[in-house]
């Protein structure tokens, strides 16, 4: 990986982690008492696990590129 690509990956990883933390705090079942909060929290954890690992992220991107239905992520 070139230095430029590595810098982009590090920046993206930091942005992803920040977004994950914000959403996790918002939807954590101990904080958010809405009935759907736990379900949302589990989806957020799953999305972060997929997108934070370079191998699973590459697989996700490949599948998303070939599936017209998978163009957006709903949280």
TL;DR of this structure?
This protein is mainly alpha-helical and 75 residues long. It has three helices and no strands. The chain is flat and about 45 Å long.
Strand and helix layout:
Blueprint: H1 3-27, H2 37-52, H3 54-66
Helix pairs in contact: 1-2, 2-3
Q: How would you describe the overall organization of this protein?
A:
By secondary structure, the chain is mostly helical. The protein is built from three helices and no strands. It has helices at 3-27, 37-52, 54-66. Helix 1 runs antiparallel to helix 2 (37-52). The radius of gyration is 14 Å and the shape is flat. The N and C termini lie far apart (31 Å). The mean pLDDT is 87.
Task: Offer a few descriptive terms.
75 residues, mainly alpha, 3 helices, 0% strand
What is the CA-atom radius of gyration, in angstroms?
A: 14 Å
Strand and helix order: HHH
How large is the share of residues in beta strands? under 5%
Total number of strands = 0
The helix-and-strand class reads: mainly alpha
Taking pLDDT < 50 over at least 5 consecutive residues as the criterion, the unreliable ranges are none
* Helix proportion: over 70%
Shape: flat
> How would you state the average pLDDT, rounded?
87
Number of helices: 3
Measure the end-to-end span. 31 Å
Q: Describe the largest sheet.
A: none
């Amino acid at each position: 990986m070139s230095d430029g690509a590595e810098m982009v990956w590090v920046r993206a990883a930091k942005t992803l982690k920040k977004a994950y933390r914000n959403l996790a705090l918002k939807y954590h079942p101990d904080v958010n008492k809405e009935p759907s909060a736990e379900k949302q929290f589990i989806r957020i954890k799953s999305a972060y696990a997929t997108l934070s690992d370079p191998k699973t992220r590459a697989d996700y991107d490949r599948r998303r590129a070939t599936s017209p239905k998978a163009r957006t992520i709903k949280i």
